[in-house]
């Protein structure tokens, strides 16, 4: 593929930015990739492992002359980061981000984007439970979705950014920022909160030891711990910045949980069986849509064919 | 390994029994394995794929002359199944089971076990989201735990059954039946109920389409759907038969969830960050105990090294 942006600046060098770097290099869609991280330790690691063609000590230096700027910092740091780079942005440049919440990013970043610079918020739905500059890999976005919430940004620039994400392996869709935040409250934010809660409960029980929880986790619990090992700062910011949608879905969740709890208490086996049968169908849909494999047991064991 | 039981009878031929068969053959610890399933369709499949050396049309015929009888039926079918085989059990034989709840199985099966037959309840903590006679594989129990709740059964026979499970790849531990049911409520039953609930909520929302839920599931939700795709009959019976412990842990869970919900509502980022940091430690414990791998993203993507 040919170069799409002469210079791409990655601001923040964690899992998503480092995966973007390797995916950009794999696709050959950028002339040069610059990078910046707030922590000098992260910048040192980036230089050591060749993450970014040039690593700068300030965000402003990293974005100077860049055609595409990708904000890869936690949601809570978006406002300050955007303020820092605002004066250095090149006219005609595109600013995008990878935050898990879109309305809050628009509110934080929008006011700092000068006239003549395009702002197209984005969110690649991809990740692992690992974080930091060493955690990235080029295949992270392959066959995953990237959602853009352009909200009136110039059509040609939106189209170009779509093609860029497709070159990194993604499928791309566009939607309204508020709808994005609701969809993600369902498919990501509430599941994470629930997983964190369940792991916290297990850790707190005095009648069941931590060793028992750990050793006997293969029967379901371990899959919650993987989700609940995600980056604490990122997730704090997600919940603080997608409060309304998360609380709405949490309300639905507890309502539904109480109905199932009553069915257990009253011994209503038909209700439970019907409910558990219905939820199987969604799983099939996810496998058919290529968003998971049907290899059993999470692919952790070899399978006899 | 040498033969430990001349004849092993597997009653019920789903995921666990079929995995036991292949693991028994791999280990060479049984002279012959007989099998029975209530459904003639399942028996046909078993005969077609060579699951069990001989498949019988009644449970009584399958257990006749057997030295080890393994009840692999849903908890709700334990009582009737035990009654069916009671008169055919050979003196000195060992009856065990693989049910996910132990107190209820003891209550259901115990009265049907004649004098001179040993009853040693068991529970291999292994499984996948798939079910049926074709879903088994020999490696299912490798490095997983099998819990026995012998409650006064003869020590020699308990020791022999331990060695049998070890030959199938398991680690083995013993505990009291009620404690087992509490531990499993934490590590398995409540996590499953929560996953089922979250998937049900997502399926029910009118403002988010099923297509959106499916396509955008990679950000956390898909891992809940895997758990929520488990066998509905098995899980109905688990909740009906481990009611007290599940309701106790559910109570703790909702209490904790409400505290986190309030922290979100009040914008208490410190509370959220502390909580999310604490839950990371358990994850590390599980990886160190060999109950999961640290391959990111569930091993679904190749990883750049």
Automatic annotation (TrEMBL), chains A, B:
Prephenate/arogenate dehydrogenase domain boundaries: 6-294
Keyword Lipoprotein assigned: no
| GO terms, biological process | tyrosine biosynthetic process
One function term, GO molecular function aspect: prephenate dehydrogenase (NADP+) activity
> What pathway or pathways are given for this protein in its record?
Amino-acid biosynthesis; L-tyrosine biosynthesis; (4-hydroxyphenyl)pyruvate from prephenate (NAD(+) route): step 1/1
Q: Superkingdom of the source?
A: Bacteria
Q: Keyword annotations for this protein? A: Amino-acid biosynthesis, Aromatic amino acid biosynthesis, NAD, Oxidoreductase, Tyrosine biosynthesis
EC identifiers of the protein: 1.3.1.12
Pfam families per the UniProt record, alphabetical? PDH_C, PDH_N
Asked if Plastid is a keyword of the record, the answer is: no
Catalyzes what?
A: prephenate + NAD(+) = 3-(4-hydroxyphenyl)pyruvate + CO2 + NADH
UniProt family annotation: Belongs to the prephenate/arogenate dehydrogenase family.
Name the record gives this protein: prephenate dehydrogenase
Species of the source: Octadecabacter antarcticus 307
> Gene encoding this chain?
tyrC
């Amino acid at each position: 593929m040919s170069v799409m942006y002469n210079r791409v600046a990655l601001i923040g060098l964690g899992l998503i930015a480092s995966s973007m770097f390797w995916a950009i290099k794999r696709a050959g869609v950028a002339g040069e990739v610059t990078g910046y991280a707030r922590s000098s330790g992260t910048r040192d690691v980036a230089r050591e492992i060749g993450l970014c063609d040039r690593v700068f000590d300030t965000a402003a230096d990293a974005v100077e002359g860049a055609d595409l700027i990708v904000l890869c910092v936690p949601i809570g740091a978006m406002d300050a980061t955007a303020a820092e780079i605002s004066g250095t942005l090149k006219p005609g440049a595109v600013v995008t981000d990878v935050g898990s919440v879109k309305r809050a990013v628009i509110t934080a970043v929008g006011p700092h984007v000068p006239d003549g610079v395009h702002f197209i918020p984005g969110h690649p739905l991809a990740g692992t439970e690992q974080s930091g500059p060493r955690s990235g890999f080029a295949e992270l976005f392959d066959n995953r979705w990237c959602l853009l919430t352009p909200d009136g940004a110039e059509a040609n620039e939106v189209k170009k950014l779509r093609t860029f994400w497709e070159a990194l392996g993604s499928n791309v869709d566009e939607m309204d920022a508020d709808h994005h935040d609701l969809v993600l409250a369902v498919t990501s934010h509430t599941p994470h909160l629930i997983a964190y809660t369940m792991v916290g409960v297990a850790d707190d029980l005095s009648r069941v030891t931590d060793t028992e929880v750990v050793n006997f986790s293969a029967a379901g619990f371990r899959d919650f711990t993987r989700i609940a090992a995600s980056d604490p700062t990122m997730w704090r910011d997600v919940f603080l910045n997608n409060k309304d949608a998360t609380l709405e879905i949490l309300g639905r969740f507890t309502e539904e949980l109480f109905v199932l709890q009553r069915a257990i208490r009253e011994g209503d086996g038909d209700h439970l069986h019907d409910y558990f049968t219905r939820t199987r169908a969604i799983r099939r849909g996810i496998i058919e849509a290529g968003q998971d494999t049907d290899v059993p047991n999470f692919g952790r064991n070899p399978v006899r064919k």
